[in-house]
């Protein structure tokens, strides 16, 4: 992925304090109310709606992939595994601390801990970290996180370790191994919170001798408390990595002896099984789906069920992206925003436990949030179809008719299809037929991550990597980040917005070193983007995840919007 030099010039001094702002609205009540803390041993069963598409740390893209990945992948730093505000803080993971900046935050040094090892017992070295970062520059596969290319110096023309003898054996010059345990990053700009950046999985180490390139995605080598024992079409089985040392890892609790992750998209059946909690269901938790809507009232009104549901709010948002290339007419996009029935959508999802109505892309939990409502949806959660019809009629009279048929892409799962049906019904009111394009959930984000996809509306959600607008606006709306490679799968600007004025405003916000001023700039950008009608914010998401009677330690982690796998165990 190529980045405009204006984009590269200035992610300046976002300050570590920005990332300390908790995105989690949840309290630690869930953990405190558990009758017993987790104990070591047993097999934890985890249900996910679809098997993670990527296990290779350089290719991890979704919250579920990132959550699962921490079982086997350690990074230089990582987020704490604790309920409440502490979950938004980082600590040294493979590194002894959160990093030592110098030269005005342009150089960052990290020292690896003693006795950190791979699953075969070999030491994890600086060379492994350097190689992991270098492989993210390869064109062999689409890398999901662009941070290395944005922040590291001297990356122009570098094509990764698989071509040209890895830059003639020199590798990436901005990542240096001082010795086996000390690694130094040279940045192209001052970055005050680079310690948070290296918590992202693209900075994870990979041993060159174990790298199977594209196939590494199927079975990555472990540096964490577990290793992959088995991978099938529907299941991932993790067992203990005997070379992981608890003394070197303050984050991962690693209570279970085995963790079995199984894909099951039948949400009502999953919820029913967890409520009943017979057999293995007592040791099971639903990681990425809320309680099925038909069971919500039963769960929230039953003290015993409510006590074992893992719940809380966080900084995530559920929205629809409007493909601005396929619907270039602003008035037609505005009509789609005005007509949307948020009440019907949320009711089908389970009501207020699913989330609060949203008007913005930056959630209220973030200080960069600006309160605005340019489509007057707060007072009209059922939409304003009359306004939409007027806009469409004006375009028809101007010989610029809005499309009468649209395609909505969704992960092909029963619960999401039910929600998509409300979208179909909504737009029928204004004479638009919506065709649902169900895509295999396992590959959904790869498919819509190709800018050449032919969908008009796209089901999407977003959880910030840290608690600032810089983790929302640039990845979703900076047109300079849209990949140009024909088979790219890592685009996150699903609306394909590429507005030069907005791009320049993003650069200005990134360059602002005073936090309060930066917050204001992100809020203003959020509003300006809303005027372009390229997304339909629906709800600020909440989590209500059901757990079996024997599961303990659950809380919603703000980085994933899910129960943190690193904290879960059995009673």
UniProtKB/TrEMBL annotation:
One Pfam family recorded for the sequence = SBP_bac_5
Q: Where is the Solute-binding protein family domain?
A: 89-478
Keywords for this entry? Signal
Membrane-spanning parts: none
Question: What superkingdom heads the lineage?
Answer: Bacteria
What span is annotated as the signal peptide, if there is one?
1-24
Q: Which PANTHER family match?
A: ABC TRANSPORTER SUBSTRATE-BINDING PROTEIN (PTHR30290:SF83), PERIPLASMIC BINDING COMPONENT OF ABC TRANSPORTER (PTHR30290)
What is the protein name stated in its UniProt record? ABC transporter substrate-binding protein
């Amino acid at each position: 992925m190529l980045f405009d030099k204006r984009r590269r010039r200035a992610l300046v001094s976002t300050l570590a304090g920005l990332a300390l702002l908790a995105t989690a609205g949840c309290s630690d009540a869930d953990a405190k109310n558990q009758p017993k803390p987790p104990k070591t041993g047993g097999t934890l069963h985890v249900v996910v709606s679809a098997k993670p598409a990527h296990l290779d740390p350089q290719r991890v893209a979704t919250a579920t992939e990132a959550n699962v990945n921490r079982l086997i992948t350690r990074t230089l730093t990582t987020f704490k595994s604790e309920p409440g505000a502490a979950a938004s803080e980082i600590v040294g993971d493979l590194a002894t601390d959160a990093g030592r900046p110098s030269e005005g935050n342009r150089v960052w040094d990290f020292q690896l801990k003693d006795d950190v090892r791979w699953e075969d017992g070999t030491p994890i070295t600086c060379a492994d970290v350097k190689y992991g970062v270098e492989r993210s520059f390869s064109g062999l596969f689409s890398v999901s996180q662009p941070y290395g290319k944005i922040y590291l110096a001297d990356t122009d023309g570098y094509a990764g370790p698989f071509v040209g003898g890895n830059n003639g054996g020199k590798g990436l010059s901005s990542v240096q191994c001082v010795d086996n345990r000390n690694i130094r990053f040279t940045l192209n700009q001052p970055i005050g919170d680079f310690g948070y950046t290296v918590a992202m999985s693209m900075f994870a180490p990979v041993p060159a001798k174990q790298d199977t390139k594209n196939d590494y995605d199927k079975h990555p080598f472990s540096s964490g408390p577990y290793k992959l024992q088995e991978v099938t079409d529907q299941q991932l089985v993790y067992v203990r990595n005997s070379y992981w040392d608890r003394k070197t890892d303050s984050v991962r609790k690693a209570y279970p002896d085995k963790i079995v992750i199984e894909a099951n998209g039948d949400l009502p059946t999953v919820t029913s099984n967890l409520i009943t909690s017979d057999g293995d269901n007592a040791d099971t938790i639903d990681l990425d789906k809320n309680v099925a809507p038909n069971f919500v009232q039963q769960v929230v009104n039953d003290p015993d069920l409510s006590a074992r549901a893992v719940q809380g709010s966080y900084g995530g948002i559920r929205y629809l992206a409007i493909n601005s290339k396929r619907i270039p007419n602003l008035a037609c996009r505005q009509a789609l925003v005005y007509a949307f029935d948020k009440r019907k959508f949320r009711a089908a999802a389970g009501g207020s436990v699913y989330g609060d109505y949203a008007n913005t892309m930056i959630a209220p939990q973030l200080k960069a949030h600006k309160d605005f409502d340019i489509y007057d949806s707060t007072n009209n959660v059922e939409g304003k179809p009359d306004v939409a019809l007027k806009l469409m009629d004006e375009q028809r009279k101007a010989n610029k008719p809005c499309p009468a048929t649209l395609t909505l892409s969704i992960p092909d799962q029963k619960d999401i299809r039910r929600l998509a049906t409300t979208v179909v019904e909504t737009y029928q009111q204004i004479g638009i037929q919506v065709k649902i394009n169900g895509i295999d959930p396992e590959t959904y984000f790869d498919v819509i991550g190709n800018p050449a996809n032919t969908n008009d509306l796209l089901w999407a959600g977003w959880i910030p990597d840290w608690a600032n607008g810089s983790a929302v606006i640039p990845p979703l709306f900076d047109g300079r980040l849209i990949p140009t490679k024909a088979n790219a799968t890592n685009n996150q600007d699903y609306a394909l917005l590429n507005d030069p004025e907005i791009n320049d405003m993003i650069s200005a916000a990134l360059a602002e070193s005073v936090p309060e001023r930066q917050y204001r700039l992100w809020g203003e950008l959020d509003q300006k983007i809303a005027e372009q009608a390229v997304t339909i914010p629906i709800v600020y998401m909440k989590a209500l995840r059901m757990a079996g009677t024997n599961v303990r330690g659950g809380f919603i982690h703000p980085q994933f919007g899910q129960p943190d796998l690193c904290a879960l165990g059995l009673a």
